[in-house]
Amino acid sequence: MDSLSISDLTIRYGNFTAVKDVNLEVPAGEITALVGPSGCGKSTFLASLNRLTDLTPGCIAEGKIVLGESGCILGPNVNILKLRRRVGMVFQKPNPFPQSIRRNFEIPLREHGIPKREIADRTESALKDVGLWDEVSNRLDQSALQLSGGQQQRLCIARALALDPQVILFDEPCSALDPLASAVVEDHIAALRGRVTVIIVTHNLAQARRISDSTAIFWIRDGAGTIVEHGPAKTLFTSASDPDAVYYLSGERG
Amino acid sequence: MRSGKISDILLGALCSIAALTGIGALIWIVTDLIQLGLPHLSPGFFTEEVTESGRGGGIGPILASTALILLSCLTLAVPIGVGSALWFAEMITEKSRTGKLLTASIDLLASVPSIVFGLFGMVFFCQVLGLGFSILAGGLTLACMVLPIVIRTTISAMRAIPQDLRPAAAALGLSRTTTLGKILLPRALPGILVGVTISVARALSETAALIFTSGYATRWPGSLNDSGRAVSVHIYDLAMNIPNGAGRASASALVLLTLILIINLTASFLSDRWFARQSATHPAING
Predict the structure, then answer these.
(1) B169 — contact with chain A (CB < 8 Å)?
(2) pTM, whole model, 2 decimals?
(3) What mean pLDDT comes out for the span B227-235?
(4) What is the ipTM score, two decimals?
């Protein structure tokens, strides 16, 4: 588990500033939820934490993101492939590779030099971690796309877990799922507490309240997204001071 | 019953006539070929040598030459075509200046008449590179001709890949090579196969590009440096230059048509199976 320390982070797409002056401490092993209305930079911020923003041409992140003991992850000398192994990500829409369930684990594990004999064990234990092993153990060679949406999302979480990451970023992992599947996925995310550092973007305030240790509220200030309120989930929902945040949390705005 | 609005009925009738005309033309050609050609077909026709300039014997050496021309064409066109398409699809954005220029060049290359490729092949491969009238020169000329087909179909196969696979791969720390080789390419393979099939059909039916490059020789080819006559050139020669050649021209055309049909069916069977294996029955998210 590693902590993340973000200071003065600004992210631009060309002339457009998506995120401005964000400061956030993410303690190791805790679950931090990011909430706020659409289009206020939460997902962009999240993607910058494992440099997935590099995939967007013209996207520049300035400031500091310090991962554990290993220093700032921004800058040209960082090994991005190794960084992404340490900081995994799960997306809004489940995105298993259109291949067998087994191959979904084999490809990333081989890529990161895990010996062949360990792959089966790692696959099994990662699938057990998300409660999927009993459902799929007898059809590992079937296409991952045959699984239901909720199962696919748990497969994606397991696929990220198999690489032993320090941090996992979740970008609205439940919003494409039905309520029952969503509850199952949420339980498995909550179970990661103490094992990996979790940062989760969600539009579901109740969910943020249920599973997070601390919550940060994003809002637009001067045309760019930033954090307007941040604190322990237990107290933040009742004692927020920023007027926008208070409205948002009370369900009257956002 | 459908409501009888005059314009609807008229439109339906016109479309039906158009469709029937197209199908009718095909049926006419095939019937004609069968009537004229079938009496000349026998097992020996596929293996025997050409005698009396095609009035007698079979088309054995011609089928062999055609296969070799096709082989040398694909050996060059598929790796170069797929390679450049991957580079184009992965490294260049479609709307950039380079992208527009490249798209325009590919379109231009695709619309060059085949006789021009023939002349180019004759000058460049036969004379400048000193290959002479040879199967290799013919194959290389055809490769230039089908290259835009391979490139275009591969590009569209790559662009049709679901957009969320790339970030999924990137977020797992996969290198570009792994992403391309193990995730994107397997997904695009059926589409690439379609492009190769169209190329094969196009190459098999080509005459003008081959007359000046692989030549007319009807003997059994001994190597890629020999001149060899392709089936389509044989059909052209029998039909145009040999009195009473129409029957055997039709027989050869029937063979060519069947060959293309078999190749098309095999390719679509393979790509269907590939898709079935990749995405199972219901690729949609269902809860």
Answers:
(1) yes
(2) 0.81
(3) 91
(4) 0.90
